Fold these 4 entries.
Entry 1:
Amino acid sequence: MSHKESLTKYVGHFIDQLYQSGVRDVVISPGSRSTPLSLTFAEYKQFNIWVDIDERSAGFFATGIAKQTQKAVVLVCSSGTAAANYYPAIIEAAYSRIPLIVLTADRPHELRDVGAPQAIDQIKLYGDYVKWFHEMALPEATPNILQYARNHADRAVHTSQYQVKGPVHLNFPFREPLIPDFRLDDVWGNDAVITQHFPFEETQMTSSVLKGIDQQLHGRKRGIIICGPHDYLDLADEVLDLAEKWQLPLFADPLSSLRHLDGENVVIESYDSILKSKKVRELVHVDFIVRFGAMPVSKPILQLLQENDIEQFIIDEDVTFRNPSIKGAHYIYGKPADIAKQLASLSLSFDHDWLFMWQQLNKSAKNVLIEEQQTLTEGLAVRGIQTIIPDESNLFVGNSMPIRDVDTFWLATDKTINIHANRGANGIDGVLSTALGMATSGKRVTLLIGDISFLHSINGLLLTKNYQLDLTIVLINNQGGGIFSFLPQAKEESPHYEMLFGTPQSVEFEKVAALYDIDFTSVEEWSAYLHALENSYRQQGVSLIEVKTDRNENVIWHQQKWQNIEKHTLTILEEYRNVY
């Protein structure tokens, strides 16, 4: 059998099995050594093929697609540093539990470590950041090897999607010639047996486990339920039901899908602003915390746990230890929505005055946060999006200050807005590309991003030249790294601060927009900002709204808000202590 026939059928069977196992989206960064994979994916004609010439951008673009579809997305690249450029996205996917199937082409074994071009060591290139690595066999078309190719394609899909999602990596050594022959018979393996998987559908805690939890919580009065970032479609409703049945405050992270009016009786959105004060954290005496999802964006939550001995119950789908407080905890494993439902069946009674106190604290903090303000600030930029953003759309939030401002200023709403962010590794890279990946579904995406993050991933805008993607970009331009203004680095008054941390880039973003044929508006006033948002949502394609702010003024404005919230919070806590 010829090399070309072996190559064609080996790759054809592999790719057919990916489709049979549920893959629909493939992101390809073109290269020579990956020709067998790229051409075969295109020839199959059933996949959504996305081409991105920048592998770093492509990796994050794929994470955005996977976030939106909740399905594994394939990445294809050539050998050498092309594969290395996926690394940041793979790290993010590992920590954010995003299913990616990374297919890297490679030189055959005889061309490795001999000075051949584009030949680096790709064996276990991504270390422990992938759930599974496999060096694929050289192509053959014997029945056993064709079934081997299918088995590994199927395994890649299901390993990436169960039980905790994450990336997998398959490395393909290819000898030349690299061009498949699709005129051959049975390229796709039409008579192949399709593997089936039967994953568990629900989790049932035993009666003894439930009884143990009941005993541990018996007599406790002041508990908090926390819902952090997650991607479980059914979790939010079950956690809300648990909080309502137990009548406990529910701290809803902005990435929890719980900041809506249906739960305003128990949902506390302003816990981050309330707990910023160390005095407040010393006065609230929390007996226990039940947490679903990852740790919240809020740093004061972590500080509350670190400064006090609070009994923690952490619910996760598998044996993991997402507990950065480095305190003791009880771990409950299973499908989080099922666990929440079973916990709600326990007949527990807690301090109702405790919930009432948190409702009062939340109401008071929200009144401070929504006070009328004439100047367009970074916090008000969030409120503007919440006011104008269309119902049933997506908001993607950059790291550093944007996600923290969303945590603070995104209050309960009657709109159904899905909020997402790359909170796995908390990096600023690839934010723009991830948002564009989410827009491939056809649903409008709004991206809130800072100027440094935007410039860091600006190559992602190349995708807008080739695909119809509806994205509204709200760009906070404060001439540098605004988050550092809130950190100790800014208080040292070092002569090196601006060079090392402020890092102003002085880019004219109107010219950036012109380069990519993007609609551009720059605003400095509230009414103009709202008008720009309305115009953006009325049109297709990508639009860029630049919001100019001042870093120093932004810090002062935030601090005044937090000081006012602290003052009102301490008053309420004193009243609560005197009355109850």
Note: The first strand starts at residue 25 and ends at 28.
Entry 2:
Amino acid sequence: MQKFLRMPLLLALLSCLMMTPALSQADEATGQSAAAQPVKVNASTALPALQKRLDQLKQQVSAAKTDKKFTGLNDGAQKLAEDADKLAVALAPQLEEVQAQLDVLGPAPAAGTLTETPQVVSQRNKLNNSKTLLTTQIEQTKGIATGARNLSSQISGMRRDALKTQIALNTGSVLGGNFWSPLITPNDDDAARFDDFGSQVHDAWTQAWSEDWRAGTGIYLLLALVIGLFGRKLLDRPMNWILPRWLPHGRFRRSFLACFTTLSTTFTLGISVQLLCYIFTRLPDTSQWVNEFAEQLVELTYFSAVIAGLGIALLSNSHPSWRLPGIADPLAKTLGSFPILLASFIFLFGIIEQLNNLVGASIAATLFGNGLAALLVALNCLIAPVRVNRMRRKMRADGEQTEARSTIAGLIHLLISLTAFVILIALLIGYIPLARFVTFELLWIGLVVSSLYLLIHFWVDLCESVFSDTTHSGKILKSTLSVNDRHLSLAATLFSAIGKTALLLMAAVALLNGTFGTTTPLELLSKIVDMWGGKGLESLNIIPAHAVNAVLCLVVGWYVLRSAKRWLDNDFLPKTMMDRGMRASLVTLFTNVGYVLIIMLTLSSLGIEWNKLAWIVSALSVGIGFGLQEIVKNFISGLILLTERPVKVGDLISISGVEGDIRRINVRATEIQLSDKSTVIVPNSQLISQNVRNATMGNAQGVATIVLTFPLDIDPEQVRTLLLDAYNLHESILENPPPSVSFKELGPTGIVLSVTGYVNSPRMVGGTRSDLLYEILKMLRAAEISLSQTQTMVLEQPLAKIAAAEDEA
């Protein structure tokens, strides 16, 4: 029994003896590790500090606006990643030390075997807990480092986007070494990213020519090459045969050919690149980068192809006689290569910019691409006018005739040259974001204006062709609707005006909202407003972007209104049956309503709400009550005159002793021209509140009345017949109602006769009456009839009576 009791004790003693060298080995390993890493990092405090720094950087990034702020945050993110890597490196030896101790202790014994002492079990549990904690801390540290690097890439992308709007940022001149450093000494990260993208493209290309995809790749590649190289020429040949045979004679042929050339160039190049990209995008293993780049490449191709197509169509070197703008043939041939070069520059450096954004290239690489693109576009825009001017001088020296230059063409020429000069200056002094912004704004505005010019010509020519009385469509409309040529001309004018107005509005919207991947840089205007320091405008919600839009809305609205007024006054209304006064009233009313709408749209663009203008309405009410009531009264009276039309432009009126023709009804007053060509300004309220004689209202006739006095011994019937003959013989006197003679008075001085006749207009009364007086006097003298003379009574006194009277006095 005692033997059995001693056995466990013996076993425990043996196990203790066996564990003694193991513990000594563990102590030696621990000592060696401590000697290798004498300083241990307290990860329990360092790790939360790193996480806090990461969270703070994320919060600051969301509120960052300037390049300086982005640079500081990017440096902070990179420093955080370095600190996290250092912490992970510092924790790795501690994990190795714990693992070494666990290896010395060995695995825990299986159940049913020898048991371990509590000290060994406790030590193994502590080591396992330390291992788990260290592993978790290292993983968290690596996660923080990865998050910091991702944040740094995100900041770089945001900084690249911010460079598009921060035009006041000086990034270095294009003549400096920093600008060319991405080409001479590229960044290692950029090289790695581009190599990675290149390897993905290479893998996709290799897969495309694999056995399963080889046939389709060859077909798509062949189609892309044929369409891209020969597609436009193949479409031009049948179109050149169709145009003279199917389309009517006129200007519509040339505008249709220009539109067709633009569309054929755009779609052939676009479809060709789409087929090339489809070679890669149809593959199942194509990477996301390659797919995104293919989509962006197709969009860039269409944009560049539109520019090239517009240039080829407007220059029309293949069909000089069908050229839309009035450009001489030598000048058009001189400019023939510039649209293609410009489109090529945009396509090439658009690819570079898209690649930089796609792979997350450095700021230096982005600035290099933007600056080089702006430089080449500016040089292209400067060299083209120089060559044109040189060719003009040569043509004048040779005695050849140049094109008739208009003011608008000269203004466009000057603006393009000045803009290109501004781009070059910005690049030289180091404002690459400014140069990029101006470059792409120039391209966008040029694209919109060129498209507007082409589409307006196409639409106007189409309307004239459809509604012309010489075309097949016009003859069908005349026979179907039973209209005459005047109605067809009126319809052509109306529909062309509607189309031009719609195109102008779409162009205005495109200019306001569309910028080739850019946003309007309004930080400078915001700083100016902030320098004023007042918060009075905050209640009206006026911001610089809205202010610029309001100015553009005001300018475009004023131009559209002026063009519409000129069109109504000169083109549309004269073709109607309205009289001149009605046309003038409609034009004036249309102009007034247009000004009101423009003001309302401008205020709306400013972001001003009408409920925020209560103080203005209150001030106006006080002003109206005191000093503005006459102006308001005249304004309302002017609206009544234009709508009710008691008097209209061209009427002959008489008011307060003033008689003349109405020449213009303005908002406040009416202009009346007298017979001596002088003008009297009459407030509109007087035409409403006073008695006005309108001599021409309702097609009123004029009355030519002459009153004559004859002696008592004349024959009244003879004189009556003579007067009626004089009136009847005059061509201006109307037959109905016929002229008449009235016996007005019989007195001691003679017989008073009044002869009356009617003419078509009161304006003819004066001239007709003068002619009749000449004729009547001639006829009276021929008939030996005299007019009655005024009798004078003279009292005479004898000389004797006069002398006697003097003596008595």
Note: The radius of gyration is 48 Å.
Entry 3:
Amino acid sequence: MTTVALDPDTLSLTDVIAVARDDAEVILTAESMQRVARCRFSVEQLAGAQRPVYGVSTGFGALAQRHIPHALRAQLQKSLIRSHAAGMGEPVEREVVRALMLLRARTLATGRTGVRPEVLTTYVEILNAGITPVVYEYGSLGCSGDLAPLAACALVLMGEGEVLDSSGRVTDSAEALAAAGITPVELAEKEGLALTNGTDGMLGMLLLALADLENLLTAADLSAAMSVEALHGTGQVFLPELFHPLRPHPGQTLSAANMLTALKDSPIVASHQDSDHLVQDAYSLRCAPQVTGAARDALEFAHQVASRELRASIDNPVVLDSGMVSSNGNFHGAPLAHALDLLAIVSADVASIAERRTDRMMDVHRSQGLPPFLADDAGVDSGLMIAHYTQAAMVAESKRLAAPASVDSIPSSAMQEDHVSMGWGAARKLRRSLSSLTSVLAVELYAAAWAIELREEPGSPVTTAVVQQLRTRVPGPGPDRFLSPELAAVTELTADGSVVAAAEALASMEHTLPIEAAGPS
């Protein structure tokens, strides 16, 4: 089994993906445990002091003015977690919960939260046992932490609430912990806040989105190149001298290089390169690198935000190097919310231009000799007409999801928390947007592959490899048939990286960024 060392200074995007999606085992380091024990000592010193300290010996949020006596502090922690585990809606995806828990454990391992070592070790044991708290979609405003989602996880740490066990069955958490040999934790001072006051849900979904969009943008370069080929477009507009020397945006330079690589040695392109049938290709073909490249540049910005957050210690209050426990506002999700909203915008734009290219392949007046809707016997057969409708519906949904969540704010907690980021909501809609983008690109790939096969000349070595990859799951052109399973199969090949891998087997296709999340820049 793959293992991931829970070192707060080196945990990477690759590590998060390995734990969230591949169930890699998390290993605690001796250095982390020593740091946790050292910082806990500072909290226990303050817990015995006469002066109230927020989160240690007081109530929470708008109730922070009440000093809580020692006899009630264990109950205070239980009450905090129980009351905050108030989520509603559908359960979120298992990979999101696992990413959230890993990232919360990473922050606990910094020592800044002041928890006892047994809290961290038990939290990691739950993760390693494959026990997944049931976390509901609504309950975080992206400020004061992802409160309800994180509280649902903390509730399981206490032996309460519901979980998915390692077989995916919903069960009582106490039963699941007992079956795994894990003893629930009785929380002490500060630990309730430490387990709930973080941006881990937002960050986890951003990191998952970075990995997904990395693959999808390269798939978009491939689908665009295949559409150019299918529509008798030109590759001359993707020559390197037209990009970095003239307009030095790195993303569009990279996307153009990918498209030029995909079209290299294409007999289809060569068959009409001396023709004057078109003076210029339509924008959806000619400007594909500019659009997908701009998305790459936006992804780089989001990657920088995520990299910095991946080195943060988000809690309120936090334990400083001096041993002082200090209140702060670092739990505010604005940096993440803005990045998440930006990615939803560029996802919608990449989907939109892909749909425009697909539309051209459907239209006999613009498709350069292809049959209407790529139908086998147009009139008797409808071809890919409704596949395009479905694609258009998903693009429309993506555009609605591009409306930013971060410009909204609903004051809460008796106006103590009077400006919130809505970053969790931004992350949830980004996941839906990326799901739609995957399907939209799959429809374009499906249509472009079909169109290429209808041409008299073969495609390039790269596009031929992609077509052959699709043909391992779906047949080529022919009379009308039930398309939904075929579109689902191509969507799966797009999502899991098979499409990009098929191209990379023949040529070096550039990705967006290094997948490792570097330290703060």
Note: The longest strand covers residues 3-6.
Entry 4:
Amino acid sequence: MKVPTATYRIQFRNGMTFDRAAALVPYLKRLGISHLYASPIFTATTGSTHGYDVTDANEIDPAIGGRAGFERMVRALKAGGLGLILDIVPNHMAASLENPWWRDVVENGENSRYARHFDIDWSRRLTLPFLGDTFEKVLEAGEISIRLDPKTGRPALAYYETLYPLTPSSYAGCGTAVLATTDKAAIARLHDQQPYRLMSWRDMPRELSYRRFFEIAGLVGVRVEDGSVFDDTHHLILELVHGGMVDGLRIDHVDGLADPKGYLERLRHETGPDCYIIVEKILGEGEHIPADWPVSGTTGYEFIAAVSNVLIDAGKLDTLRETYHQVVGHPVNMEAELRAAKLMMVDNNFAGEVATLLKLAMQIQQVEDRESALAEASVRSALRELLVAFPIYRTYGTREGLPTEDRRVLGKVLDTVRNGPNAPPLHALAFLERILIGDVEQSVAGRASVFRTRFQQLTGPLMAKSMEDTLFYRHHMLLALNEVGGEPLPRASSLGRFHGAMETKLEREPDALSGTSTHDTKRGEDARARLYTLSEAPELWAEAAARWHEMNRALISALDDGPAPEPPVEWMLYQALAGVWPATFDPGNLEDLKALEERFAAYVGKALREAKLRTNWGDSNEAYEKAVIGYARGLLSPGNQTFRADFSDTLRPFIHAGLVNSLTQTIIKLTAPGVPDIYQGCEGLDFSLVDPDNRREPDFETLQTWLSESEMRPSTNEEWQSGRLKQHVTAVLLRLRQEAPTLFRKGEYLPLEAVGKRADNIVAFARADAEDALIVIAPRLVFSAFHTASPQFGADRWAETEVSLPEKLAHRRYRDICAGKTMHFGEQVALSRVFADYPFALLLAE
């Protein structure tokens, strides 16, 4: 297996095609990338902006160049010596009539060849939740009719421009007479004869008959655990791997599969041992992927949380928390808030999935004879508490029950539930435990297996939607912590935690990715790096937020349900604006100001709906949304110059300290254990907001121009603020990774201790093997140094600060790979010496 030395993620669509990606190969090669990491390339719904809504898993999307364009890109990659990793989507496909398999299922129901390809409950009609109201109401309103489908020549139920095919038996012998049907009762009878039932999107949470991806009805679960379904959905993927065009696969949402381990074992068998395989998997605190999965590791969300330990000022976090609680008006109990979010999901958003589990449990209970009959209410209460208490995405039980490690996890969860303040009837909880571990009567073992699978496929979406897509938008103490792979729950941050995480990664997943930005992160890596600095100056930030509140008081609307924005949302708006504010920005440039306003307003609208407090996606509060988005626009309106001037001046030291954080974060990613993943454009600066903002195409022309300069420039103010310094450091380290791959893949990870006056402002470690050694020294927590007009600070600031070297690193000569200087060190490295040219040191042993 050829393990990448560094990957570069490209988002296809939105203007990015195979030919355009091929043109970037010389740039990626100069940057030091070993593998292009491509977003999904298979045919997706018309106009798809991401490609995860696949309509044909065995066709390369013509919209981005088709098979011919793909092969041209592959030839360009091979000519440049680069490999290719594909993002594939085994868990779901588009529930769209553009999907020929889904269309066949809609038309023919359970008789379709593809009826078992999708995860559908065939004990009832297939539900299609795409109407604006109930079928009866839209029919009465005249919104449903019978029309001829011009593509097939056959009659269909027409709802506006969507034509749902009629099953042939429902109009056989009627010829074209069925088209003359205008009688609403006749249309209703015809609808009743279909294998599907059109219904309101509002009824989806309770009545959906198929497994969806999270809450998205337009994405239907695929039963890839079935061998024939695996074959049908992986034909082209395997052809590309076996043909040498694809070197690796990234598995999207592996936790959605019925049997992740079984799927990965089949995939490994089919691809062979040389294919690099990673999985998208969000890990909880202290969690690891199962050791017996035949993969190289995860896509690296957990790396973001690990790096936050370096860049968060843990000693001042409580001050920031107390200030935020004053803004909210009361102390915030995050554990209670998470429980409330999960209960909302269990009782509303995923009510149908929970009802299915309850139905299965009661069917099993009828056969069990170990105890008296359990009341359905008791079982529901136990199921609800078990789902809410689950601390990780899922366990990995199979038909045989739960693996040993997962039994341990379940045991802890059960203890938490039993001893908690909301403990359900214990006999009902014990009953569910037996189902999950497989201790049931043989006659119901099959149903218990289905329950176990469904339970495991539900806990992940519950966690994701409760944490990432609700709680992260409700509580805003420090937005940088509200990131995929992290938790906004109180925890201690420390360098020790970071070093421990890196030592564990080297031991368990040395070939896994390390990411700092992805297409799914809540904000760009440099926005996050800047917002970390708020933890270093909580009083200053709180004073500024209070001042801005007074400046913009006239923008606040008084609504019947309260002020808009309310104080916590206002606090969020200032943080989000601070994160997206360009490093070099003239707030007097009206064109740039308007562009920023549009991006910011779009983010605010999404953030309000995701919070699900005063508005949401299913029941929007237009007055509230208009008021808050109006406030956000008002912050950036040309007439609000006083605020913008104050905001810009206040932000300056945060910007400068954030640029240092950005560089430290980058250096760590490129030298610590794991394979560094560069998200498109993030070799420069990326201050984007959540998607779709973070999927905008970067300025590749400028990036290529910068990199054409062969030498690193001096550490000037412009180099920092433009992102050029970050790009050049990235290129230097990526090239080193190619020259010494064993050092970074297998070399020891050695935490180094800083001593002296500014010891707390340094993170240091080394990578070492029998041949090479690299000492990495980078700054942290430097906000107090930057009440100046520059992100630079002289070497004299680092006087009386050293990094101690262990015996294997001491008394050797080292070359600073950025400054080009060679130095000899004894048992310590003096920072005032190595920080003379750049405020970091990358020292390679000679």
Note: The two ends are 30 Å apart (CA to CA).
